[in-house]
Amino acid sequence: MRIRVTPGTTVAGDVRVPGDKSIAHRWLLLGTIATGRTELRGLPVSFDVASTARVCAGLLGEDELFRWAGSIGSGNPDVDHRIAIEGARRDLLQPPSGPLDCGNSGTAMRLLSGVLAASPLSATLDGDDSLRARPMERVAEPLRRMGAVVDTVDGHAPVAIKGAALQGIRYETPVPSAQVKGAVLLAGIGAEGRTEVIESTATRDHTERALRALGAGVTDLPSGIGVERFDVPSFSGSVPGDVSSAAFLAAAAALTGGETTVERVGCNPTRTAFLRVLARMGAHVEIATTGEELGEPVGALRISASHGLQGIVIAPDDLPGTVDEVPVLAAVAAHAEGQTRFGGAAELRVKESDRLTGLRDLIRGLGGEAAIEGDALVVAGGGLKGGTADSRGDHRMAMAAVVAAVAARGPSEIEGIEAAAVSFPGFTATMLDLGARIEVLG
Ligand code: S3P
Fold first, then answer.
1. Atom 11 of ligand 1 has which residue's CA nearest to it?
2. Residue of 29, 157, 161, 28 lying closest to 103 (CA atoms)
3. How close is the Cα of 25 to the center of ligand 1, in Å?
4. Cα(9)–Cα(22) distance, rounded to whole angstroms?
5. CB-based burial of residue 41 (10 Å sphere; 0-12 exposed, 13-18 middle, 19+ buried)?
6. What is residue 90's DSSP assignment?
7. 132-168 confidence digits (pLDDT tens)
8. Cβ of 107 less than 6 Å from ligand 1
9. Is residue 24 within a helix (H) or strand (E), and if so which, with residue range?
10. Is 266 in the pocket of ligand 1 (CB under 6 A)?
């Protein structure tokens, strides 16, 4: 679907965003292997979470979850929708009759690998062309070391897993990745002995927070985390709003001179590094934590523009904490004064699309200057004229293009906006509500 974005309006107002997809994947998986009935509220009706939900529904023979996943893509998202799952211990999961489709979701494929590795069944995980191009050995290798049989096709999906009685390991991740850490920890709670994951840079900690809140033996280590074998009890939880979705609205407000408050959003500090980057660039950012949900801090995020944003250097060590927000930060950087450099950004090449090349092309297509220098993305700043951009089927690229375009000097046309629903169903409608001028061209 192609849209036209006409700049000149202010993006402002109070809003809520759909539930956090990283948290939703994890709580769905924990509910699946829990003993008894788990109730989850606020699961986002996004395509990625639907992929995990569909696979879990199949493993459990759960009709309600299956129907919910099947309804996605139709109608308006209800951010507080409630769903119940009748969990089964790993040894009671139903062996799948065919490949398990993870769609576009790397998190679904990698975290499910961890759950299945410790389950007494054989399964094959597959996905769309984008997912089949992403590296899977990074998760297969530690799971093999724990005792599972895991086969990839030249390091890629389809991933065939034969679960086994696993042994805990101490694993140092070669690349900081919350998906790899999460997979090893989810396998670890089904393994004999302690499982430890050591990371050179800390990544999002949703798996360990949920496990700790549920009563698992979780130990903080210098640069890592350890878990003990654990039988997951049933639980209930309300998924906080996705701060990575809020990032697009916050950036649009900061760029257009507006002020926006996002309520009931996740404020986990391993996810809010982009706010520190925006503050360094000169935006006014406030985050007020008001409560907690299954170990996850929840609160309100308020952002407004200051007089002019400045280009900055984002060091390689800051990259893992902002990995999902580089597209929107690059959109902001294109409008800042002076150059912004995103160092150590190689991981962007293996996201839902090659975001390093994609962002350079996106900024150039919208009438700005950007370059790739080794593993760094360098954005010139100084504003955008307006032009054309293509999401290349990548949700965050689609939304970043809209944010870049609302602050441009002239109109832009963006192809492939429907990809936004992978993580942020209702994105275009929310932007319209907040004042953006967007028309669907067909
Ligand atoms: C995620 C981890 C990150 C992130 C992805 C979600 C997660 O990926 O980019 O959108 O939920 O664990 P990596 O672990 O590959 O960095």
1. 22
2. 157
3. 11
4. 32
5. middle
6. G
7. 999 999 999 999 999 999 999 999 999 999 999 999 9
8. yes
9. helix 21-33
10. no
